[in-house]
Amino acid sequence: MAHRDTQINQLQPIPDNFAIYPYVPQLQVLQQVDVFITHGGMNSVHEGLYYGVPEIVIPQQMEQLLNGLRIRAVGAGILLGERPPYGQVTAQELHSALEIILADDTYRTNAKYYGKTLHDAGGYKNAVEEIEAYLKSYQTDLRLA
Fold first, then answer.
1. What are the tens digits of pLDDT across the range 26-80?
2. What domains sit in the chain, N to C, each tagged with a CATH number?
3. SS3 for 109?
4. According to the model, what pLDDT value does residue 100 have?
5. What is the C-alpha to C-alpha distance for residues 17 and 128, in angstroms, rounded to an integer?
6. What is the model's pLDDT at position 6?
């Protein structure tokens, strides 16, 4: 969810090496980054993988935790803040996770592998075709019964 009305001045002090914006075009940014720090929502996780970007998942609730567990299990990223209250991490934990991912190409290799599976799946157009084909066969089966 984009929070375009975020009051950036409430986030002070902002370190000199940070750029803070109320909104960024995530799909464009993902094509230019080395690591994706995300809350772990299903869309975000898939978008990061689609572009072959390893992830640091910091969940805010259960569904995001499950996505983070899967990212960790397939070696495409690191999960932080996995115990309630979710999302509680220190700057040092985040810094360490970032250093680990940047130093180990296995995370990027795995993210690219799963990104390729998403590309090969054919996207939403193929999903629609598969659903329509299934519904047609299901309707045929009902008529035969």
1. 999 999 999 999 999 999 999 999 999 999 999 999 999 999 999 999 999 999 9
2. 8-144 (3.40.50.2000)
3. helix
4. 98
5. 44
6. 74
> What are the two backbone dihedrals, phi and then psi, of residue 48, each rounded to the nearest 5 degrees?
-60, -45
DSSP E strand stretches across 25-131: 36-38, 55-57, 77-79
R_g over Cα of the chain:
19
At 1, is the pLDDT very low, low, confident or very high (cuts 50, 70, 90)? very low
Among candidates 116, 50, 48, 47, which has minimal Cα distance to 78?
A: 48
The residue type at 31: Q
Block residue for tokens 């075709």: 129
3-state secondary structure of 134: helix
- Say how far apart CA 131 and CA 83 lie, in whole Å: 37
Q: How far apart are CA 67 and CA 59, in angstroms?
A: 9
Residue-wise pLDDT for 91-114, tens only, equals 999 999 999 999 999 999 999 999
Judge contact between 51 and 71, C-beta under 8 A. no
Residue 84 tokens read as 């309630």
Q: Which two tokens stand for residue 74?
A: 């397939």
